[in-house]
Task: structure prediction
Amino acid sequence: MAVREILKMGDPRLLRVAQPVTAFDTDALHLLITDLLDTMRAADGAGLAAPQIGVDLQLVIFGTDRANPRYPQAPVVPRTVLINPVITPLGAAEVDDWEGCLSVPGLRAKVPRFEQIRYTGFDPYGDPIERTVEGFHARVVQHECDHLIGKLYPMRVRDFSQFGFTSVLFPELDSADD
Ligand code: NI
Result:
Protein backbone atom coordinates (compact mmCIF):
# COMPACT_ATOMS: atom_id res chain seq x y z
CA MET A 1 0.00 0.00 0.00
CA ALA A 2 1.36 3.37 -0.98
CA VAL A 3 0.04 6.84 -1.53
CA ARG A 4 1.87 8.15 -4.59
CA GLU A 5 2.64 11.71 -5.63
CA ILE A 6 0.01 13.13 -8.00
CA LEU A 7 1.56 14.98 -10.95
CA LYS A 8 0.34 18.52 -11.51
CA MET A 9 -0.57 20.33 -14.72
CA GLY A 10 2.60 21.44 -16.48
CA ASP A 11 4.30 18.06 -16.05
CA PRO A 12 4.84 16.70 -19.59
CA ARG A 13 4.00 13.16 -18.43
CA LEU A 14 0.35 14.28 -18.19
CA LEU A 15 0.37 15.06 -21.92
CA ARG A 16 1.31 11.62 -23.25
CA VAL A 17 -0.97 9.21 -25.06
CA ALA A 18 -0.88 6.19 -22.74
CA GLN A 19 0.08 2.66 -23.78
CA PRO A 20 -2.40 -0.24 -23.64
CA VAL A 21 -2.11 -2.79 -20.84
CA THR A 22 -1.03 -6.11 -22.38
CA ALA A 23 -0.74 -8.41 -19.34
CA PHE A 24 -3.65 -8.90 -16.93
CA ASP A 25 -3.81 -10.35 -13.41
CA THR A 26 -0.10 -9.79 -12.78
CA ASP A 27 1.48 -8.79 -9.46
CA ALA A 28 2.68 -5.53 -11.03
CA LEU A 29 -0.80 -4.65 -12.25
CA HIS A 30 -2.44 -5.41 -8.89
CA LEU A 31 0.22 -3.35 -7.09
CA LEU A 32 -0.38 -0.42 -9.42
CA ILE A 33 -4.14 -0.60 -8.80
CA THR A 34 -3.61 -0.73 -5.03
CA ASP A 35 -1.42 2.38 -5.24
CA LEU A 36 -4.00 4.19 -7.38
CA LEU A 37 -6.82 3.31 -4.97
CA ASP A 38 -4.77 4.39 -1.95
CA THR A 39 -3.81 7.64 -3.66
CA MET A 40 -7.37 8.40 -4.78
CA ARG A 41 -8.77 7.64 -1.33
CA ALA A 42 -6.17 9.83 0.42
CA ALA A 43 -7.09 12.76 -1.83
CA ASP A 44 -10.89 12.15 -1.75
CA GLY A 45 -10.78 11.95 -5.54
CA ALA A 46 -13.74 10.95 -7.70
CA GLY A 47 -11.30 9.17 -9.99
CA LEU A 48 -7.65 8.81 -10.86
CA ALA A 49 -5.78 7.80 -14.00
CA ALA A 50 -2.44 5.98 -14.08
CA PRO A 51 -0.69 8.86 -15.93
CA GLN A 52 -1.48 11.09 -12.93
CA ILE A 53 1.04 9.10 -10.89
CA GLY A 54 3.47 8.98 -13.81
CA VAL A 55 2.53 5.52 -15.10
CA ASP A 56 2.14 5.46 -18.88
CA LEU A 57 -0.69 2.90 -19.10
CA GLN A 58 -4.35 2.96 -20.14
CA LEU A 59 -5.80 2.37 -16.69
CA VAL A 60 -8.27 4.49 -14.72
CA ILE A 61 -10.10 4.05 -11.45
CA PHE A 62 -13.20 5.90 -10.36
CA GLY A 63 -16.14 5.69 -8.04
CA THR A 64 -16.32 5.71 -4.28
CA ASP A 65 -19.33 3.58 -3.23
CA ARG A 66 -20.17 6.47 -0.88
CA ALA A 67 -20.81 10.21 -1.06
CA ASN A 68 -17.65 12.12 -1.99
CA PRO A 69 -16.81 15.12 0.24
CA ARG A 70 -15.31 16.95 -2.76
CA TYR A 71 -18.57 16.45 -4.72
CA PRO A 72 -21.23 16.11 -2.00
CA GLN A 73 -24.17 16.58 -4.41
CA ALA A 74 -22.96 13.97 -6.90
CA PRO A 75 -24.60 10.56 -7.18
CA VAL A 76 -22.57 7.58 -6.01
CA VAL A 77 -20.65 5.84 -8.80
CA PRO A 78 -19.62 2.20 -8.25
CA ARG A 79 -15.92 1.71 -7.64
CA THR A 80 -14.45 0.56 -10.93
CA VAL A 81 -11.04 -0.33 -12.34
CA LEU A 82 -11.19 0.20 -16.11
CA ILE A 83 -8.36 -0.86 -18.40
CA ASN A 84 -7.88 -0.08 -22.12
CA PRO A 85 -11.17 1.83 -22.22
CA VAL A 86 -13.11 2.83 -25.31
CA ILE A 87 -15.86 5.44 -25.05
CA THR A 88 -18.72 5.72 -27.54
CA PRO A 89 -21.00 8.77 -27.19
CA LEU A 90 -24.70 7.89 -27.48
CA GLY A 91 -26.09 10.89 -29.29
CA ALA A 92 -24.67 14.37 -29.64
CA ALA A 93 -26.26 15.85 -26.51
CA GLU A 94 -23.80 17.54 -24.17
CA VAL A 95 -24.18 18.88 -20.66
CA ASP A 96 -22.09 21.49 -18.83
CA ASP A 97 -21.20 20.86 -15.22
CA TRP A 98 -18.47 21.62 -12.72
CA GLU A 99 -15.27 19.58 -12.68
CA GLY A 100 -12.08 19.60 -10.74
CA CYS A 101 -8.95 17.49 -11.06
CA LEU A 102 -6.34 16.36 -8.56
CA SER A 103 -3.70 17.40 -11.11
CA VAL A 104 -5.17 20.92 -11.25
CA PRO A 105 -5.54 21.66 -7.52
CA GLY A 106 -7.63 24.53 -6.26
CA LEU A 107 -9.65 25.13 -9.42
CA ARG A 108 -13.00 24.18 -10.91
CA ALA A 109 -14.61 24.86 -14.27
CA LYS A 110 -17.80 24.10 -16.13
CA VAL A 111 -16.89 21.52 -18.74
CA PRO A 112 -19.06 20.21 -21.60
CA ARG A 113 -19.33 16.41 -21.75
CA PHE A 114 -21.51 13.95 -23.64
CA GLU A 115 -24.64 13.30 -21.64
CA GLN A 116 -24.82 9.57 -22.34
CA ILE A 117 -22.05 7.18 -23.33
CA ARG A 118 -21.30 3.50 -23.64
CA TYR A 119 -17.89 2.45 -22.37
CA THR A 120 -16.04 -0.79 -22.77
CA GLY A 121 -12.76 -2.07 -21.41
CA PHE A 122 -11.38 -4.74 -19.11
CA ASP A 123 -11.13 -5.36 -15.41
CA PRO A 124 -7.79 -6.32 -13.78
CA TYR A 125 -8.38 -10.00 -14.61
CA GLY A 126 -8.95 -9.30 -18.30
CA ASP A 127 -12.71 -9.79 -18.10
CA PRO A 128 -14.67 -7.39 -20.31
CA ILE A 129 -16.63 -4.45 -18.92
CA GLU A 130 -19.44 -2.81 -20.88
CA ARG A 131 -21.76 -0.18 -19.44
CA THR A 132 -24.19 2.43 -20.70
CA VAL A 133 -24.24 5.41 -18.34
CA GLU A 134 -25.27 9.04 -18.17
CA GLY A 135 -24.90 12.14 -16.05
CA PHE A 136 -22.17 12.26 -13.39
CA HIS A 137 -21.03 8.69 -14.04
CA ALA A 138 -20.59 9.48 -17.75
CA ARG A 139 -18.77 12.72 -16.86
CA VAL A 140 -16.30 11.00 -14.53
CA VAL A 141 -15.46 8.35 -17.13
CA GLN A 142 -14.92 10.97 -19.87
CA HIS A 143 -12.73 13.04 -17.53
CA GLU A 144 -10.58 10.07 -16.46
CA CYS A 145 -10.22 8.64 -19.96
CA ASP A 146 -9.13 12.08 -21.20
CA HIS A 147 -6.05 11.63 -18.99
CA LEU A 148 -5.13 8.64 -21.20
CA ILE A 149 -4.92 10.87 -24.29
CA GLY A 150 -3.04 13.69 -22.61
CA LYS A 151 -6.06 15.95 -22.08
CA LEU A 152 -6.75 17.85 -18.85
CA TYR A 153 -10.17 19.40 -18.31
CA PRO A 154 -9.02 23.02 -18.84
CA MET A 155 -8.37 22.00 -22.46
CA ARG A 156 -12.12 21.23 -22.75
CA VAL A 157 -13.40 24.49 -21.24
CA ARG A 158 -15.33 26.67 -23.68
CA ASP A 159 -16.58 29.41 -21.38
CA PHE A 160 -13.71 30.76 -19.29
CA SER A 161 -16.08 32.96 -17.28
CA GLN A 162 -17.01 29.64 -15.63
CA PHE A 163 -13.51 28.81 -14.40
CA GLY A 164 -12.27 29.74 -10.97
CA PHE A 165 -10.90 28.87 -7.58
CA THR A 166 -12.82 26.23 -5.64
CA SER A 167 -12.54 28.23 -2.43
CA VAL A 168 -14.30 31.18 -4.10
CA LEU A 169 -16.85 29.24 -6.15
CA PHE A 170 -17.75 26.73 -3.43
CA PRO A 171 -16.73 28.20 -0.05
CA GLU A 172 -18.95 25.65 1.72
CA LEU A 173 -16.72 22.71 0.67
CA ASP A 174 -14.38 21.40 3.35
CA SER A 175 -11.43 20.44 1.21
CA ALA A 176 -11.47 23.46 -1.05
CA ASP A 177 -7.78 23.13 -1.93
CA ASP A 178 -8.23 20.57 -4.69
NI1 NI B 1 -8.38 14.56 -13.50
Observations:
- The longest helix spans residues 27-42.
- The longest strand covers residues 80-89.
- The chain has a mean pLDDT of 94.
- The two ends are 23 Å apart (CA to CA).
